[in-house]
Amino acid sequence: MHAALPPADSIVTHTHSDRATVRSTLITAVARCWRVARDERENAQKCLYALLRPVGLGVLAPVFDSLFSLCESALGRPIATGLRGPASADEQLVLGMLDGSRPRRDCLNCDAGKASALDCAICSTRIMLTLAVDDQRRMAIG
After folding, report:
1. Number of domains in the chain
2. What was the pLDDT predicted at 23?
3. Which residues contact 100 (CB under 8 A, 6 or more apart)?
4. How far, in Å, CA of 102 to CA of 116, rounded?
């Protein structure tokens, strides 16, 4: 069972505050899907793709798989996700690192190699998420 994603048309909303809320809901749902897949020893990318494809964001499955794997490595423990409701502390940490409100260097104390890999994953996720949502927006308009 996977968390619900925002409707596809809401992912391409035009106001900044709406986009922030939708992205938060999206990333929280993705984190929970990833955690369940990992806990059940399923293929996380396949589960993420099944979750993201209906809203046109299936291309992000490997991006999120990498982000959460590297985040877990940097934490030195499994990422704790919620089942329903508000984002857990770890989910809030990922959201903060992605939106820039919580720089990784201020949140996680890990070795330089893990830090560098996670920093790259954070930047890549920001870029890919923006590109994928912009593609959805162009398709909705055109």
Report:
1. 1
2. 85
3. none
4. 16
78-89: pLDDT as tens digits? 999 998 889 999
Start-end of H helices in the chain: 8-11, 16-39, 44-52, 61-75, 89-99, 104-107, 112-141
Contact 24, 5 (CB under 8 A): no
Asked if residue 1 is part of any domain, the answer here is no
Looking at the chain, which runs of residues are DSSP E strands? none
Domain with 21 in it: 8-141
pTM assigned to the model: 0.85
Per-residue pLDDT tens for 8-51? Answer: 444 544 455 567 788 889 999 999 999 999 999 999 999 999 99
Helix (H) or strand (E) run with residue 137 in it:
helix 112-141
**Which amino acid is it at 142?**
G
- Cα–Cα distance, 43 to 91 (Å, whole number): 21
